[in-house]
Amino acid sequence: MTKCLVAKLADMEGNSLKSVTAGGRQICLAQLESGEVLALSDICSHEWIELSEGELDGEDVECPAHGSRFNVRTGAVSGLPAEEPVETYPVTIYDDEIYVEV
């Protein structure tokens, strides 16, 4: 796995989503209300839609197209119509820099 610098903490706002690229993959960064930053695939497993354009509700991200929901920690489906989980990625923060391992 390779650690890729994808953003700075200053680029994120509390309880928000941000689309980034790491190792050629589209990644959705999710910053929870607690300030913790998590990373998952930015592409919904139900249809080719960017999850970062959706809504963050607690630890779930909701796809803007059909309402599929995914847990940002595990990638597990938490709301239909999606049936397949999305991939998650380890996040490391050094100083103000966010790294994602791909």
Task: Please outline the helices and strands.
Blueprint: E1 3-8, E2 16-22, E3 25-31, E4 37-41, E5 55-57, E6 60-62, E7 69-71, E8 77-79, E9 88-89, E10 91-94, E11 97-101
Antiparallel strand pairs: 1-11, 2-3, 3-4, 4-9, 5-6, 6-7, 7-8, 10-11
Share of helix among residues? under 10%
Order of helices and strands: EEEEEEEEEEE
Query: Count of DSSP helices?
Result: 0
What spatial order of strands do you see in the largest sheet?
Answer: 2-3-4-9
Overall structural class, as computed from helix and strand content, comes to: mainly beta
Rg calc: 12 Å
Main sheet summary: 4 strands, antiparallel
Task: Assign the CATH class.
Answer: Mainly Beta
Q: How many runs of DSSP E, i.e. beta strands?
A: 11
CATH fold topology: Rieske Iron-sulfur Protein
What's the rounded overall pLDDT mean? 96
Number of domains: 1
Termini separation comes to: 5 Å
Shape: globular
Tag the structure with descriptive keywords.
102 residues, mainly beta, Rieske Iron-sulfur Protein, four-stranded antiparallel β-sheet, 0% helix
What does this protein look like?
- This protein is mainly β.
- It has a single domain, classed as Rieske Iron-sulfur Protein, CATH 2.102.10.
- It has strands spanning 3-8, 16-22, 25-31, 37-41, 55-57, 60-62, 69-71, 77-79, 88-89, 91-94, 97-101.
- The strands form three sheets. It has a four-stranded antiparallel β-sheet with strand order 2-3-4-9, with no helix packed on it.
- Strand 6 and strand 7 form a beta hairpin.
- The N and C termini lie close together (5 Å).
- The model has no long low-confidence stretch (mean pLDDT 96).
